[in-house]
Design goal:
Blueprint: H1 2-18, E1 56-59, E2 67-69, E3 79-80, E4 86-87, E5 95-97, E6 104-111, E7 126-130, E8 134-138, E9 173-180, E10 183-185, E11 188-191, E12 194-199, E13 202-209, E14 231-232, E15 242-250
Antiparallel strand pairs: 1-15, 2-5, 3-4, 4-15, 5-14, 6-9, 6-15, 7-8, 7-14, 9-12, 10-11, 12-13
Length: about 250
Amino acid sequence: MQKLRSILLVLLVLIAANGFAQLEEEPTKPEQTEFYEPVVPVVTPGKDGAPPSDAIVLFDGTDLDQWISTNDSTSAKWTVNKDGSMTVKNRTGDIQTKQNFGSIQLHIEWKSPAEIQGENQSRGNSGVFLSGLYEVQVLDNNNNDTYVNGQVGSIYKQHTPLAMASVPTGEWNTYDIIYHAPVFEKGQKIKSGTLTVIHNGVLIQDHVEIKGTTPYIGWPKNPIHGDGPLRLQDHGDNSRVSFRNIWVRELD
């Protein structure tokens, strides 16, 4: 019995020192730490700005067939331009994808109009909503100060961006977003969602926790939900933001 107690004591010391007891012998051959399954899928990268081979293309400049009006689910009413972009049609309402998504990698390009109108939150304002609920802010912040948790690249009213990486007003910006959706179980959130945002090649949100919805007024809320649409905002103030080259890769 005394010997058994001594062994247990040694194990407890090992656990305390290392976090766990390493009971197996360390491998002495390289093949002992190599494995060949699961086989990694092959994805062909896009060339010259094209999406990768496994992407779901949501807007390629042709039409708005993948989108509907958020207000009433009718056809999206925004303007498709000859240059392969689409522009918010003022006060026609937000648009959202017909398809719902969970966790995704999103690529989207946007620009504010070269002709500057308005200031603060009324200049080139739109937003990209993941699951239709969680907003990554779109805004012309060039020589245009506003509250920093509502500036370009913020997770609206929750997380200030690490940098302001916008190109000059009227030129095309790129957002590459990694979104992991929250997890709900038995009527409660058991795991928060996260967002990573790269703006024009610059990391501006680094795997930040989504606290809940991103309202203009009030605290974040956590409604139970599953997969949801990608939603783009009509700010209703003639912001005239344009978008192009929108695609996603599902991560679920």
